[in-house]
TrEMBL record, chains A, B:
This is NAD(P)/FAD-dependent oxidoreductase. The keyword Oxidoreductase applies. Keywords: FAD, Flavoprotein, Membrane, Monooxygenase, NADP, Oxidoreductase, Transmembrane, Transmembrane helix. PANTHER family: KYNURENINE 3-MONOOXYGENASE (PTHR46028:SF2). Residues 2-329 form the FAD-binding domain. The keyword Membrane applies. Its cofactor is FAD. The chain crosses the membrane at residues 414-431. Pfam families: FAD_binding_3 (PF01494).
């Protein structure tokens, strides 16, 4: 049948590939012009870190090779202390696992090519959704650069149109649709560390972090040997640096080693916009009437903050899960979208972990306690069969997020019990040595 | 100065009175036609229970007498068991305190009369807000029954336009404005118990409750000697009764005593719409630009479910608090609306209590444990100086909601400590009698 997807971003394009493989016709409507014919949208998007969940989804369509070729593996975190000292911390116990840095625009172009190369997929660019009526299935779009209204009618409408989804905006107006948007008091701003003498200015095999307590900067490598840096700062700090002098002085003090690598710091700081960090939840994600069924996937369904590097990975996994739901019900879309609601338990978990990880990244990763804890955790992984850290289960497996939560909770109980038993054994040993306890043998 | 209020409902009208008293000009825009020229909106609104917070606000404007004259005092709950047995439970230890039943439409007419009788207040009916621009202060309204657009410009805009506020809809689009709407899986539907032989069919001095575990019905008296009944049922139960036979059989089984008092049960059940129960939160409630400042009050700022009878009372208290903020900053509206944000701590508390009270009303008020607990609580109130139940502090005082929470938590700690001390004393006495403990005297 024919499926209308609103939004030809990462998740919309990938879902189109899955649906075309199932034999459906797919029409994608996209607000922007074709990004393959334009320059990238610089200064507006965090680099992505594609990890196992995203790769697994791409692999099912044979797209993993091409995407990973364009990406740079990062096998750990490189922490930058205020004095410029660096500490590398591998993501996995065996140091073999990596997350993969790729630009959002580059990945989108790859996925657009993949979708449009498939039979039955069509993308209509420059069409901004202005109205969707669940009673009739009618959609209205404003055509780019004109007053024209383009109308369409669809039996299945999927909103893959991002955190500020126009499809969801309609669902939110329906009684019974619960929704929340929660903003952090933090903004983000992109900066850049260009290549030096044709080479990377820092180690390209790591995700660089400057943890500074209340705020932080991160940097991810690009194929052109630059790094895209992103500040995550409280809005008041971002606004306070309102002169070139203040900007330079602040970076020289707090980001000393990076400051020397940013020749265009002031221009980028003053020119690039401040982005917002929001978590969005919606329930249900779909509505079905006699005329149509409307569903949401990706950020439109569950926008999360970027601190676990899981936004795109989670959206890609949505496509795998929706594909699985369609398998279960023989491509009955209303029933498949009903089944797909079960995924909210997983997306709620990663939404919470992403918020928690912000505190970890900006504050705790810089502490000795945290580094020591990570070393203990990696030691446990080498010693205890089956012990895997939460970060690894999230980033290097496709174990459902809810199952990761349960497993980590179990592991922590075991570790606590083991530590307790070890402590008791040690106390018992000490007591026996001092003759304070009469054992059966000795008594 | 001139203040534009969107919405001439209960809170909009009351706020207009407060602002006019401060010497401001007030223009109110209202979507509906003048309700004083029309019949009431039957079957669409729960009766209100005005209690101390609402009365306190009205008293400050000399409006309490007129409103209370039109209301019926309810001094307690009357529980109706499935077998028809009734149990009365007073709201206060001294049985003297009452909440006051009044129809929303009647109260709105009273407040419209109060507002329009004041110098400088004007109400423009039949104007539905379609756009508000915080950058310019421009408002656009659709005029009732025509295609005309009426525009206005304002330096201060207050959204008092209810749970589905059009003013808040604009704020929600601004980055940094957090918002949530949470629906219960319950709907409500109004029914009626008419007067019998010119008299009330039940005791008009009580709020009647039929607690039925997962669901309930309530009834509040009206001056015409009828009762307005409201079902709070899971949506699936409401939908399941789809024939006159099923409706009659269900009520005969579960609401036996009321069933005999509802001659038009089937007509009302089939004719009246199903309402939704939603909690809405928004933060911040205001935005200030160079051109204008926009704020929210009442349900537009914090819609709550009706189970503590506090929605209107809380909205009226908003007006008192905003008036106090204006006092503090000499009628500087941007600063006053900034100060008014502190009220969210209180409205969050009552939002949570209203949700909790649904469980109490539909389930626990029918149990013997609950009734015994209430008797103990009222006994404590008579015995312990200063001990007042939460229900009384919420309904019969104007202690801030947050302070009520703290005080109730303190009281419960004291009561637990007292019970513990009593238990210890009793154990000590028993032990001494059995000679198990040597006291200093005896040793």
């Amino acid at each position: 049948m024919e499926i209308t997807i609103v939004g030809a971003g990462l998740v919309g394009c990938l879902l189109a590939c899955f649906l075309a493989r199932r034999g459906h016709r797919v029409v994608l409507y996209e607000r922007r012009q074709d990004p393959r014919e334009q320059g990238a949208d610089r200064g507006r998007s965090i680099n992505l870190a594609i990890s196992e969940r995203g790769i697994d989804a791409l692999r099912r369509l044979g797209l993993d090779g091409g995407v990973l070729d364009a990406a740079l593996p990062m096998a750990g975190r490189m922490m930058h202390a205020p004095d410029g000292a660096r500490t590398f911390q591998p993501y996995s116990a065996d140091r073999a696992q990596a997350i993969n840095s790729i630009g959002r625009a580059e990945l989108n172009r790859e996925l657009l090519n993949a979708a449009t190369s498939l039979h039955g997929v069509e993308v209509r660019f420059g069409r901004r959704l202005t109205a969707v009526d669940e009673r009739s299935g009618r959609l209205e779009f404003a055509a780019d650069g004109s007053q024209d209204v383009v109308a369409d009618k669809a039996q299945v409408i999927i909103g893959a149109d991002g955190a500020y989804s126009a499809v969801r905006a309609r669902l939110q107006q329906l009684p019974g649709v619960s929704f929340s948007q929660d903003y952090l008091d933090y903004g983000y701003k992109e900066l850049s560390i260009p290549a030096r003498h044709g080479r990377f200015a820092m180690d390209p095999g790591a995700l660089h972090i400057w943890p500074r307590g209340r705020s932080m900067m991160i940097a991810l490598p690009n194929p052109d040997r630059s790094f895209t840096c992103t500040l995550f700062w409280p809005h008041d700090t971002l606004a306070a640096l309102d002169t070139p002098g203040k900007i330079r002085a602040y970076f020289a003090e707090h980001y000393r080693d990076a400051f020397g690598l940013m020749p265009d710091l002031v221009g980028a700081y003053q020119g690039n916009p401040v982005g917002h960090l929001v978590t969005m939840r919606c329930s249900p994600w779909h509505v079905t009437t006699e005329a149509t069924t409307i569903g949401l996937v990706g950020d439109a369904a569950h926008a999360i903050v970027p601190f676990y590097g899981q936004g795109a990975n989670c959206g890609f996994e949505d496509c795998v899960e929706l594909d699985r739901c369609l398998d279960e019900v023989g491509d009955d879309f209303p029933r498949a979208l009903e089944l797909f609601e079960r995924r909210r338990a997983d997306t709620d978990v990663i939404a919470g972990l992403a918020l928690e990880n912000f505190v970890e990244m900006r504050d705790r990763v810089g502490s000795r306690m945290f580094l020591a804890g990570k070393r203990v955790e990696h030691a446990l992984e080498r010693v205890l069969p089956g012990y895997v850290s939460r970060y690894e289960l999230i980033s290097f497996s496709s174990t459902p997020y809810t199952e990761v939560q349960r497993r980590v909770a179990r592991q922590r109980r075991w570790a606590a019990a083991g530590a307790g038993a070890a402590l008791l054994a040690a106390l018992g040993y000490a007591a026996r040595r001092r003759g304070l306890v009469r054992t059966r043998d000795g008594g």
